[in-house]
């Protein structure tokens, strides 16, 4: 109970009945579950889903000729049809060379430079996010299936520690909102588990598609913690833990969220 006091300091924020058990505790659920009906309808209809613009932009980049006249499609097929959706649903995976977890966006950024000879893309830049949105959309409906055992186990533990580390002027940790209080109201929104199965996601509040690591920074900001550099090892570990926490959920990319 003492720990909950920190949360209550958010004042107007977390409103009532913090101690009462959440309806959602125990099982994983997508952030979609707590959306308003009108937002669900935008996500569900590809003509209304504003994230589909990023999919289209990513598709263009995927077939655009690089400096060496190749495109992603040269090797991965037209519209990425040779990429295995089940494999995409496993990201982050262990990188064969570094033996560390690599996020899907990082893999795409690496491919962009090494396979096409292009100038490197910045992590979370519009083009990198569009390509990731396109590639992950190929796996929409697949079940998230991140490795958690073997060589991955220690990295999952490190990611979990970061997810549970208290940060910022409010001395908050991600799990204090997303593990303890899902289903409860925070201002206009209902707290979810902070799952990543919809990322990259169209955020109505931002009027654009953002990647997981930008969303992490937005939540850092909301607890008045410093933004962290995207594309860092620490963020890869957090994304790893968060994606693994969503094992069993269906990929929704591009999700639509408030
Ligand atoms: C010259 C051929 C070539 C080009 C061009 C190329 N790739 Fe690849 N890509 C590969 C190979 C080979 C692999 C490794 C596949 C494996 O490990 O089984 C790979 C792996 C990948 C993976 C990881 C798949 C997995 O199994 O984990 C993704 C995602 C990917 N590429 C996306 C892209 C994107 C996006 C582009 C364009 C920016 C691109 N690739 C350009 C050959 C290419
Ligand atoms: C003060 C409470 C609070 C804290 C602490 C917090 N968040 Fe959030 N977070 C929210 C709210 C509110 C939303 C939007 C509603 C929802 O999906 O929970 C959200 C949404 C998210 C989402 C999007 C979920 C989706 O379905 O699109 C992710 C991912 C996320 N948070 C990650 C984090 C991470 C990582 C941290 C720690 C750095 C964190 N959050 C800390 C309140 C919080």
What's the alpha carbon Rg, rounded to whole Å?
Answer: 18 Å
CATH architecture: Orthogonal Bundle
Name the bound molecules. Answer: heme C
Order of strands, main sheet, comes to 6-5-7
Domains (count): 1
Query: From the helix content, strand content and strand pairing, which structural class follows?
Result: mainly alpha
Poorly predicted spans:
1-25
Layout of strands and helices, then pairs:
Elements: H1 2-8, H2 37-44, H3 52-63, H4 72-76, H5 85-88, E1 93-94, E2 101-102, H6 104-114, H7 126-137, H8 153-163, H9 174-178, E3 185-186, E4 189-190, E5 201-203, E6 208-210, H10 212-222, H11 233-245, E7 255-257
Parallel strand pairs: 5-7
Antiparallel strand pairs: 1-2, 3-4, 5-6
Helix pairs in contact: 3-7, 6-7, 8-11
Bound molecules: heme C (2 copies).
The site of one heme C has 25 residues, from helix 9, helix 10 and strand 7.
